[in-house]
Amino acid sequence: MFLSAKGHDICVVDNYFKRRIEKELHIKPLIPVPDLQERSRVWNAITGKIIQLKIGDICDYTFLSEVFKVFEPESVVHFAEQPSAPYSMMDRDKAVFTLTNNLVGTVNVIFVLKEFSPDTHLVKLGTMGEYGTPNIDIEEGYLEIEHNGRKDRMLFPKKPGSIYHMSKVHDSDELYFSARIWDLRITDLNQGPVYGIETDETQMDERLATCFYYDEIFGTVLNRFTVQAVTGIPLTVYGKGRQIRGYINIRDVLQCVELALKHPSRKGEFKVFNQFTEQYSVLDLAASVKKVADRLGYSVKIQSIKNPRREDEEHYYNAKHTGLVELGLQPAYLTEEMIVGFIRKVEANKENILMDRIMPKITWG
Fold first, then answer.
1. Would you say the pTM of this structure is higher than 0.90?
2. Contacts of 159 (CB under 8 A, 6+ apart)
3. Total domain count for the chain?
4. Structural domain containing residue 258
């Protein structure tokens, strides 16, 4: 919708993975979201603009090839992956699905570009989780090294913490390979956790709302904390709560994608941007939500629970993220008033909360 509103012709490809998993695992977003066909009709009625839809799986090479040959895209924004670390760690079948879906989908996109559209610029959603939490500064994609008196520039070493994050590391290797070997034009956006509920486009009609997930499969930490605050459940901090990550507002995500599209990679170039704007620990976020919720009349507690994940709970973390700012990104930083907005949204939809889906049950084993 963001790109369509700016006058671009858009074709959306989707296989309804999240809809299927919602049914399988009995989860749903806080606010009901109509299917793509209905959302496309609403968007057209409001704006007069058409977003084309192709329902299918990018792991089906024949299907994907036809989409490219018919639509002939100038740019491709590839977000079509299984996006949940906990889901990937549930059992062997889900681990295999995650690796198969994500790696095959990405290699299909690469081969479609190579065969039918080699000048098309690919913008791929990566993740800051590829890097893990190394005890050195995280550079933006690449690392200059010196070894035995010789120097080289290579992709920054990766230390993923889940099968999902490992699949994203493989993605990056596939993309780097295809740029070097086949001269494709690729930008990798290593994104941190996203927060935020609304964009200019979603505010046009409630049926265009974003998916507000608070469960352990697709939910994010701020969403979970605000739901817990409203429902009287202590804010659950995993272990010591000193895990630090880079976060980004949903509006800034849209800015970043647009900036990447406006500044495409050259043939044979693999650009990498670290896509986040601010760093917080889990305890920082819990304290911010508690402060705001208490001001609104709630009595909120913060509770440490046994960490279901295998991760360092205290660690050094300093990730560089200057590339997108240099291209013009103007960040919208997290404020108390934003958190007020999240809480008010949860209050307005409190009857939709599935209480048995708030607390984590999946462990890394």
1. yes
2. 131, 132, 133, 134
3. 1
4. 2-357
CB 134 within 8 A of CB 159: yes
Any idea what the CATH number is for the domain that residue 175 is in?
3.40.50.720
E strand or H helix that includes residue 40 = helix 36-47
Residue 363 lies in a domain: no
Contacts of 93 (CB under 8 A, 6+ apart): none
Residue 69 lies in a domain: yes
Burial 2-28 (b: 16+ CB within 10 A, else e): bbbeeeeebbbbbbeebeebbeeeebb
- Is residue 193 within 8 A of residue 278, CB to CB? The reply is no
Q: Is 362 inside any structural domain?
A: no
Does residue 364 lie in a domain region? no
- Residues 249-307 pLDDT 10s: 999 999 999 999 999 999 999 999 999 999 999 999 999 999 999 999 999 999 999 99
Phi, psi for 278 (deg, rounded to 5): -155, 150
For the annotated catalytic residues, the residue numbers are 127, 164, 168
